[in-house]
Design brief:
Largest sheet: 5 strands, antiparallel
Number of helices: 2
Strand order of the largest sheet: 1-2-3-4-5
Distance between the termini: 78 Å
Shape: elongated
Structural class: alpha+beta
Radius of gyration: 25 Å
Number of domains: 2
Bound molecules: flavin mononucleotide
Length: about 210
């Protein structure tokens, strides 16, 4: 026979234990539900961002389902990242490459560069940067239309000389009081076109060994 006080302690411990189990269980359930909602929202945001780069009608696949891994120094990458292959009627129509410009005013600028199969730029968007608000942040579409100046450009239009900001006798505008940021982005987009040109068949899945 347990003394009265021990029995009461046992009962309290039991109640406390059950309460703890119920709490941990419900937190775990909530966490699971939230995680899958966050994953779905992230996927939706990715699809929206990728869809902004390529014109509607230029592809008919789900871009997130046609990823390839790229890890190229020429693209400023230090680890494997996903590129997205756009297909139209089963044939490659464009590729979206993850590109990092390492030499922004305040460090790396992360971009997505969409390139049509024929080597023209489909669109460029900034994924992340630490440039100065009011100066370097005009690379964001939300702040200015500058990033659209790459649309339709290629390695031959303009030629190598033109792939620079106007201050360096190139074709692209710099910003008032901010040349370093646009210079870094122009260089990175030009580099992405050169990389695409050198590895086109492999990137588009057209090379013999990519089959
Ligand atoms: C506080 C501060 C923040 C700046 N932020 C940027 C920036 O984000 N991007 C940029 O290109 N230049 C920025 N600049 C200006 C650069 O230092 C540089 O003067 C400008 O880019 C012109 O470069 P250039 O001499 O090569 O033409 C900043 C300057 C200061 C003082």
């Amino acid at each position: 026979m347990l003394p009265e006080i021990s029995r009461s302690m046992l009962k309290n411990a039991l109640v406390l234990g059950l309460f703890a189990i119920a709490t941990v269980g419900s937190v775990a359930l909530l966490q699971q539900a939230t995680a899958s909602r966050i994953a779905a929202a992230e996927r939706e945001a990715q699809v929206r961002a990728l869809g902004e780069i390529l014109p509607a009608g230029s592809y008919d696949n789900h871009l997130l389902d046609n990823r390839i891994e790229v890890n190229a120094r020429e693209l400023g990458q230090r680890s494997p990242q996903s590129a997205y292959l756009a297909l139209k009627d089963g044939a490659p129509s464009a590729l979206i490459l993850p590109v990092t410009a390492p030499d922004g005013y305040s460090g790396a600028i992360h971009l997505l560069v969409g390139i049509f199969a024929d080597g023209r730029v489909a669109g460029v968007r900034v994924l992340g940067h630490k440039e100065t608000p009011g100066l370097g942040d005009k690379i964001e579409l939300a702040k200015s239309q500058w990033i659209r100046s790459f649309d339709g450009k290629s390695l031959s239009n303009p030629g190598a000389e033109g792939w620079a900001v106007k201050k360096d006798r190139g074709e692209f505008d710099q910003f008032a009081g901010a040349t370093i940021t646009p210079r870094a982005v122009v260089k990175a987009v030009h580099g992405a076109l050169q990389y695409f040109d050198a590895h086109r068949a492999q990137l588009l899945g057209l090379a013999e060994d990519a089959q």
